[in-house]
Amino acid sequence: MQASITRDARLALDLAVTIRHDGNGSVADDLTDPAGLTAWVRTHPETLPDAGRFVADDASLAAVRDLRAAVRALFAHAVRPAEPSPADAARLLPVPEAVRRLNAAAARTPTVPVLHWTEDAGPAVHRQPRDGEDDLTAALAQAVIAFLASPDRERLRACHAPRCVRYFLKDHPRQEWCKPSCGNRARVARHHERHKKSA
């Protein structure tokens, strides 16, 4: 049975996996230019503010890439004592720097408490961006913080199938890879290695 995944966890993972295996033995980056960031944001209309109208520029691209580096460093920290994703192993930010970047990004959008009180429900307070402004990196960072502070963090794993660089949430106790194709690649690689040693 597949465990549910929260909106924050999905958004945090989706940001992290913009670094992925390209299918040809290399690592691909979906956020190499503003057009890539624009396309990625527009695939998240249910979780990112004004995603349908978002158009990235160089500044927003740099901010999101900095945030992603922090996220991947913190994901690597979260999966310990297991190894981090091979894409990160040689270039991880120190954890204090990753935390600083994440918190700074989350703080980019000052929020204010707003009271909601309808006739059929008690009063409730929600936080919303001041003056209706919202910052993409703040929204992403806040989702990452919510995910890392949640019990879902305990399910976070790095996929160690050959050539895979993804992080994923473990859905069941025997799950070792992010998707079945990675499991197949890992089994084929083990089989090849065993036959190579016996030859």
Please explain how this structure is put together:
There is one protein chain. This protein is of the alpha+beta class. The protein has six helices and six strands, in the order H-E-E-H-H-H-E-E-H-E-E-H. A hairpin with an 8-residue loop joins strand 5 and strand 6 (167-169). The chain is globular. The termini are far apart.
Shape from CA axes? globular
| Total count of helical runs of at least 4 residues | 6
How are the strands of the biggest sheet laid out side by side? 1-2
Distance between the termini: 41 Å
Poorly predicted sequence stretches spanning 5 or more consecutive residues: none
How many strands in all? 6
- Helical content, roughly? 40-55%
Biggest β-sheet description: 2 strands, antiparallel
